[in-house]
Amino acid sequence: MTNRTYLLGIDGGGSKTDAMLECRETGERHRLTGGPLNAITDGKAVALRQLLELSDRIGQLLLEYNGRLSSAVIATACHIGSADSSHWSIQALVDRFPGARVIGCEDTEVALYGALAGEPGILVIAGTGSAAVALGTDGHIVSCGGWGPWFGDEGSGYWIGCEALRSAARAADGRGPETMLRQLLAERLGIRRFAMREVAEEIYGAGWSRKEIASLTRPVAEAAARSDMVALSILQRAADWLAEHASTLHDRLTGRTPAVASYAGGAFAIGELLIGPLRERLAASRIRLVPPLLSPVEGALELARKEANEKEERSAT
Fold first, then answer.
1. Are 4-111+296-316 and 120-292 equal in CATH topology?
2. Alpha helices (runs of H) in 174-295, residue ranges in sequence order
3. Closest by Cα among 246, 274, 272 to 261
4. How many Å apart are CA 110 and CA 182, to the nearest integer?
5. How many CB atoms neighbour CB 288 within 10 A?
6. Per-domain residue ranges for the chain?
7. Tell me: domain 120-292, CATH 3.40.50.740, correct?
């Protein structure tokens, strides 16, 4: 079998990592998933172990198809830097795939590149965390948000999950309006009823992670779809926060970026119940919201392709 060359894109999120391997000769793609690569919240040792496990699976695929890795782009939640950086994630891939050109960047950059296909504009991100990033017509990238769960991540999946728990707790105490979130969250937690002792034992006792709390967007979406006013309010407030991220960047880049925005992240799996309010709030700031063209991992793959093409052009001159 003829030796094949491959491109690799890796999007390391706060809840999981997506990887996409593409054969340059045939266009055949392979998609893999692994654990999160967030060294900030999970620690470098955990993130590195996740990346090495994923790299081994990628290496097995390359061996199976008699391929070699030509170019790779890896994005994580923390700043990486240029291709010659000593960042642990780049070094791990360089060591695993000698001869490959490895580029590092932040996860927001690949999400932005994918959603708008490399064109200027704004991207609103709501996964486990939240942020916004914008590409100006002058090529500059600016961002806001992404401060993490202790004093940021407003409107994120984690924020929505926490708000759901707070609302259900207030309802259980009689301090807030009644909501079907009490029942739906109890079912999700596997407890008989939403009461303080049972909830505390499950959430605090079992040491729920940010990812698990972010998964509570599902019962929120279910309650909102059934016209629960508390759940609808949570999603509307999430849209407020996310719109603030986008409008802030638009103001900072006045005249240097189109008034167009897109979105990425697992929280948007809620669908129109979150996207609709966000669209309305952005329209009030004269920003048009459009669906993403590509996923973040596809954005990483396209950046790897761009790097490989530029490398070939440099070699030809």
1. yes
2. 181-189, 196-200, 210-214, 217-225, 229-252, 272-284
3. 246
4. 38
5. 13
6. 4-111+296-316, 120-292
7. no
- Residue 235 and residue 277 in contact, taking contact as beta carbons nearer than 8 Å: yes
Distance CA 242, CA 311 (A): 38
Neighbours of 274 (CB within 10 A): 26
Class of domain 4-111+296-316: alpha beta
Check: CB of residue 304 under 8 Å from CB of residue 5: no
**Assigned token pair, 176:** 């807030």
- Return per-residue pLDDT of the chain as tens, 317 residues: 558 999 999 998 777 899 999 999 999 999 999 988 877 777 888 888 999 999 999 999 999 999 999 999 998 876 555 444 678 889 999 999 998 999 998 888 889 999 999 899 999 999 989 999 999 988 888 999 989 889 999 999 999 999 999 999 999 999 999 999 999 999 999 998 999 999 999 999 888 988 899 999 999 999 999 999 999 999 999 999 999 999 999 999 877 777 999 999 999 999 999 999 999 999 999 999 999 999 999 999 999 998 888 877 777 76
**pTM recorded for the entire structure:** 0.82
**For the chain, the helix, strand and coil percentages under 3-state DSSP, each to the nearest 5:** 50, 20, 30
Q: What is the token pair recorded at 108?
A: 């927001």
Q: Which helix (H) or strand (E) holds 102?
A: strand 101-106
Tokens of 302: 């396209």
Question: Residue 73's closest CA among 139, 6, 126, 119?
Answer: 6
In total, the chain counts a number of residues equal to 317
Task: Provide the 10 A C-beta neighbour count for residue 102.
Answer: 26
DSSP string, 239-261: HHHHHHHHHHHHHHTTTTS-SEE
